[in-house]
Amino acid sequence: MKRLVLPVAALVLALLAWLYFRPGLGRGTSGPTARNVAPSPAGKALSSSGTAGSARRAEPPLERSNLADALNSPATDIRADLRLVSEILDTFRSNFPREGNPVGTNAEITAVLAGRNKLRLALIPPEHSAINRSGELCDRWGTPFFFHAESAARMEIRSAGPDKKMWTADDVVFSP
């Protein structure tokens, strides 16, 4: 019975991700809108087929909480940030149990976590403030994290710390 729990949970999460991120729901991979309706120039709403509806109005996008929302928040510290990135990696592994950790450079790992994966599952919004112009996930001081996959299920995450220099005494390391 315990062997069945993880695959069923992964299937449920994959189904929810598919429902949430399927094409035609408005904002693409960053989330759906309540209805696929856009206002027309005459003030009436147009459905996705382009016909005017007299009573339907465009609704604001649905807001959803994201696991990465608290990343680099002034209300937390670097240790909380590292735990959060580790949780995001755990979530990735639970949705892609045969793949294990995402691999590659910081930018490649960040791209996978931001939705460049089979399910188009964005665990970190691609426009998140912690992602720099090079597509790298950065710590609260703007330095890219260093990811070291210890195994398919373990990822060490290193922040350069306040001095912004990697491999110095003030580095903060999270190793699950």
Give keywords.
3 helices, Glycoprotein, Type 4 Pilin, globular, alpha+beta, 2 domains, 6 strands, 176 residues
Please, could you describe this protein's structure?
With 176 residues, this protein is an alpha+beta fold. The chain folds into two domains: 36-62, no CATH class; 67-174, Glycoprotein, Type 4 Pilin. Helix content is 26%, strand content 10%. It contains three helices and six strands; from the N terminus they run H-E-E-E-H-H-E-E-E. The protein has helices spanning 2-21, 78-95, 106-113; strands spanning 38-39, 45-46, 52-53, 146-149, 155-159, 172-174. Strands 1-2-3 form a three-stranded antiparallel β-sheet, with no helix packed on it. It has a three-stranded antiparallel β-sheet with strand order 4-5-6, covered by helices on one side. The radius of gyration is 19 Å and the shape is globular. Mean pLDDT is 78; it is low at 23-64.
The CATH architecture classification of the largest domain is 2-Layer Sandwich
Give the fraction of residues assigned to helices. Answer: 25-40%
The chain-level structural class is alpha+beta
Number of helices: 3
Strand arrangement within the widest β-sheet reads 1-2-3
* Rg from Cα: 19 Å
**Total beta strand runs:** 6
Into which percentage range does the β-strand content fall? Answer: 5-15%
Please state the average pLDDT score: 78
Give the overall form.
globular
Largest sheet report:
3 strands, antiparallel
> SSE string, helix = H, strand = E?
HEEEHHEEE
Distance between the termini: 27 Å
